[in-house]
Amino acid sequence: MDDLLARDRAHLIHPQHDRAACDAAHVWVKGEGSLLTDASGAQYLDGLAGLWNVIAGHGRTELADAARDQMIALGFASGYAGGSNRPAIELAERLAALTYRSINHFFFTSGGAEANETAIKIARSFWKIRGTPGKTKVISRELGYHGVTLAAMSATGLSAYWPRFEPRVPGFIHIPALSASELEQAILREGADTVAMFLAEPVQGVGGVVVPPDDYFPRVREICDRYDVLLAADEVITGFGRTGRMFALEHWDVEPDLLQFAKGITSGYFPFGGVGISDEIAAALDSEPTPWMHAFTYSAHPVGCAVALTMLDILEREGLTARAAAHGAHLLTRLRAALGDHPHVGEIRGLGLMCAVEFVQDRDTKAASPAAEKVGARINAEAQRRGLFSRNRADIYMLAPPFVITTEQIGQMVDILTESVRSVLGK
Ligand SMILES: Cc1ncc(COP(=O)(O)O)c(C=O)c1O
């Protein structure tokens, strides 16, 4: 592995590039179910399903076969207006039946940030077509993560993603995560005639698995309707079963106007994503006499669409959404039993198979530990040493394994995390 890392150092710049982290990296060579193997032969439980995306687990030959067959039949063809392909047509049809009732039209991308960029541009287009071109602003939430292209980064509410890339795109406003009245106040403050959309993850993922109270999204929907603001749900993590429902706003019986997805739709085997578009917005786009100049070369990539179709077969055939719900409930129960009383555990939370443990200095006041103590990073390092690979954000440790994880592997994850916490923070 040392040789590979030396060659990596010589030529690769990584996402979230960080010299020290790169020097201590794993070079992954194999995946099977919920297990990853690195070049030294060591095996790890994949605690975050790759980057929340490998929902069907590693080593699925069926997905490889779908990609291979499509590559041989037609590896690429333009999806620009005037061209289409069979897998894209079938996928859009299938998603229309699977997603929220009002979402029946789809634009495909290569990932989540492109999906959010597209949603932002659709919202701006929609209001221009409607004759209210001043509605351009985007309200999103603190702790929200929407990707790192410039507009998506500007919507992202985690300030660590900004400093080296300022200035951000103007007209992006952040509000606290869990209070719907903050949304109404922000719309009134900015002026409803300037606000295009509210963009939110149903459950914030990267921010630390932040689950809203049950009345949050119903109130958000009402407020968006009252002020003519589009509701765009970033379901890049929560889509395709992660929270125990096919799409997460189903938990609260709310429908968005735009639905961004990526990750799980191909289980990470092919870079793919998209935006689901309401009938009303699609009709507006259809009504224009001049072309809508938004496009990616790889929009509606036939191979991505073929892999997604096979992934949807797997999801349905194996009842993976129900498995995410059951495994998630089990994981949360096990985590609470093992760590719920620990003096430095502030909260253990989750919905479906996305969970987080938040470490604090003082469990009663929930006061954070000094950042210099790097509690979350040290616990993560200990967990890795014991064979569990996942991610922390500050002092929040996150777990969102593949839906095919076994009950035994959930037990192993909880045991490893518990030992790691004890080794860093004591009993
Ligand atoms: C909720 C959410 N939106 C958007 C993105 C960005 O997706 P991508 O990295 O595919 O651009 C992510 C990635 O983690 C995400 O979690």
Chart the SSEs and their pairings.
Blueprint: H1 2-11, H2 19-23, E1 28-32, E2 35-38, E3 43-46, H3 49-52, H4 61-74, H5 86-98, E4 103-109, H6 112-129, E5 137-141, H7 150-155, E6 172-175, H8 180-190, E7 195-200, H9 216-226, E8 230-234, E9 258-261, E10 273-278, H10 279-286, H11 302-317, H12 320-339, E11 345-351, E12 354-359, H13 375-385, E13 388-389, E14 391-393, E15 396-399, H14 407-425
Helix pairs in contact: 4-11, 5-11, 8-9, 12-14, 13-14
Bound molecules: pyridoxal-5'-phosphate.
The biggest sheet, with number of strands, parallel, antiparallel or mixed sense and barrel status, is: 7 strands, mixed
What is the overall number of helices?
14
Within the largest sheet, what's the order of strands? 4-10-9-8-7-5-6
Q: Which compounds are bound in this model?
A: pyridoxal-5'-phosphate
Name the average pLDDT: 97
Structural class: alpha/beta
Whole-number radius of gyration?
22 Å
Low-confidence stretches: none
The helix fraction, in percent, is 25-40%
* Order of secondary-structure elements: HHEEEHHHEHEHEHEHEEEHHHEEHEEEH
| Number of DSSP-assigned strands | 15
Overall body shape? globular
Q: Estimate the strand proportion.
A: 15-25%
Query: How far from one another are the termini?
Result: 35 Å
Search tags:
4-stranded mixed β-sheet; binds pyridoxal-5'-phosphate; 15 strands; 427 residues; alpha/beta
Walk me through the structure:
α4 (61-74) runs antiparallel to α11. The protein has helices at residues 2-11, 19-23, 49-52, 61-74, 86-98, 112-129, 150-155, 180-190, 216-226, 279-286, 302-317, 320-339, 375-385, 407-425; strands at residues 28-32, 35-38, 43-46, 103-109, 137-141, 172-175, 195-200, 230-234, 258-261, 273-278, 345-351, 354-359, 388-389, 391-393, 396-399. The chain has a 7-stranded mixed beta sheet with strand order 4-10-9-8-7-5-6, with helices on both faces. Helix content is 39%, strand content 17%. With 427 residues, the chain is of the alpha/beta class. The radius of gyration is 22 Å and the shape is globular. The model has no long low-confidence stretch (mean pLDDT 97). It is built from 14 helices and 15 strands. The structure holds pyridoxal-5'-phosphate (PLP). Pyridoxal-5'-phosphate is lined by residues 51, 111-113, 116, 145-147, 201, 205-206, 234, 236-237, 262.
